Amino acid sequence: MTELRKQIESLAVESGKKLIAADHSSLQGVRITTKTGRRDLVTSMDLEIQRFLMTKLVELVPGCRFLCEEYIPEMGDVVITDPKEIDRGTCFIIDPIDGTANFVHGNRHSCTSIAMTTDGVTQIGVIYDPYRDELFSAAKGKGSFLNGEKLPVYDCSMSEEISVFGTAPYDDSTNKPTFDLGLLLYEMSADVRRTGSAALDCCWTACGRFGLYAELSLSAWDFAAGKLIAEEAGCLVSDIHGRPLSFHGKPSILCGRPTAVSEFLKEYKG
What we know:
- By secondary structure, this protein is α+β, with helices and mostly antiparallel strands.
- Helices cover 34% and strands 24% of the residues.
- It has 7 helices and 14 strands.
- It has helices at residues 2-24, 44-60, 100-105, 175-188, 198-206, 220-232, 258-267, and strands spanning 32-34, 41-43, 65-68, 90-98, 111-118, 121-129, 134-139, 144-146, 149-150, 162-165, 191-193, 212-215, 236-238, 253-256.
- A 7-stranded mixed β-sheet has the order 3-4-5-6-7-8-9, with helices on both faces.
- Helix 1 (2-24) packs antiparallel against helix 2 and helix 5 runs parallel beside helix 6 (220-232).
- The model has no long low-confidence stretch (mean pLDDT 94).
């Protein structure tokens, strides 16, 4: 498992180089389109990175299947269309560019996220931020690492830390409850942020830059790798009400240090 994790890390870093090259060229040749709405962007770089990862990973783990953000027709034989299929066999859950809007607008806060599950249990999580050259990774039961250094396990109160929240930009029904959530986090925390990358929000909570992260609607590829990285660093990860977090559907997420999560759950009325 350790060797496999290292190989996945190498693929994530190689994907990051593609992202940086496109960024440095001012996205020349990168096609940008929308999917479900004006905020739901996809670029040709998303597709290029995902195609690269799927091709390499199926060579590493023959018989694996994939749940990914983007659909690539020629890879259809190994693609899961129903998230419930994650519960059997080996599956890679991939977000080729988490923070696509940041990438398109030059905000330089995006990453590649790769999780490997076995019978529905996440065994490996790898997230690479090429802009900061930060490689987050975890293997179940082995701890979490940032650029090879093990992340410490500790606890904190919300009032001592910055909280971060996501705005679930593809689901307008969450607009008001999301900003009500943001107000609550602001009142309970040292300050709040909104970064545009769920995967990095999990990682930055795991490494202590944030004390708590919350969002009302996500897909499995947004949080699969980040969930394991945060948990292996001592964080609690659940839905917004403290219930087990599922890969099925569009769940909410709550990720933070145990005391911070306990404090939030006592106050949250959503």
